[in-house]
Amino acid sequence: MKVKVGIITVSDRASKGIYNDLSGPAIVETLNDYLTTKWEPAYQVIPDEQYLIESTIKQMADKEKCCLIVTTGGTGPAVRDVTPEATEAVCDKMMPGFGELMRQVSLQYVPTAILSRQTAGIRGNSLIVNLPGKPKSIRECLDAVFPAIPYCIDLIEGPFIETKEEVIKVFRPKKK
User: Fold this and answer.
1) What is the spatial distance between Cα 142 and Cα 51, in angstroms, rounded to a whole number?
2) Domain assignment of residue 173, yes or no
3) Distance (Å, whole) CA 113 – CA 24
4) How confident is the model over 37-88, as pLDDT tens digits?
5) Beta bridge partners of 40
6) How many domains are there within the chain?
7) Which of 108, 118, 114 has its CA nearest to residue 88?
8) Is 3 within 8 Å of 31 (Cβ atoms)?
9) Labelling 14: which of 28, 58, 76, 176 has CA 20 to 30 A away?
């Protein structure tokens, strides 16, 4: 059985075909680099509309049973940036440490990272993580937070996810 991972690119322009989505494919490439567990993406490109972001997350979590849902885009301070609000609206629990770590890592590269509002939360058996919209930043942020993601999915009773340890080493407590 394959693990299902939701990937949502939130972009008015990419959803209209004004430019190609580079962020969603960057997430797929990164996860292919990390994972030994067989997985398949549930992938959508949608505009910056809160109701649509909410319904897409709900669909992926509740109907498609994605254990991990990764969004990209819509996390800045612009008026149309509403991905964190949509995520908070549909989550049972928020996981602020993900956003804190991603901002800390991004600040090493760009001083405007403080403007980012990435967050994460849990809906049922799904972990939702908001990433920035730039492919380079996506990899930097995933490299920082992914070591905790498989164990978080274990704790919310999702599937056991394994990685290529030479690429990304995940943390799980030692069994006694």
Assistant:
1) 26
2) no
3) 20
4) 999 999 999 999 999 999 999 999 999 999 999 999 999 999 999 999 999 9
5) 4
6) 1
7) 118
8) no
9) 58
Q: Which two tokens stand for residue 33?
A: 């680099």
Tokens of 44: 């959508």
Per-residue pLDDT of 149-176, as tens digits, reads 999 999 999 999 999 999 999 999 987 6
Q: Is residue 161 part of a domain?
A: no
Q: d(Cα 161, Cα 129) in Å, to the nearest integer? A: 16
Domain-located, residue 163: no
Amino acid present at 174? K
Backbone phi, then psi, for 61, in 5-degree steps?
Answer: -75, -50
CATH for 144: 3.40.980.10
97 phi-psi bin (left φ>0, alpha ψ -120 to 50, beta other): alpha
User: Can you read off the two tokens belonging to residue 92?
Assistant: 């049972």
For 83-95, letters b (16+ CB in 10 Å) and e give bbebbeebbeebb
- Which residue is associated with the tokens 């600040």? 107
Residue 13 placed within a domain: yes
Is 90 exceeded by the pLDDT of residue 137?
Answer: yes
The residue segments making up the domain with residue 74 are 3-155
Select from 123, 65, 76 the least CA-distant residue to 99. Answer: 76
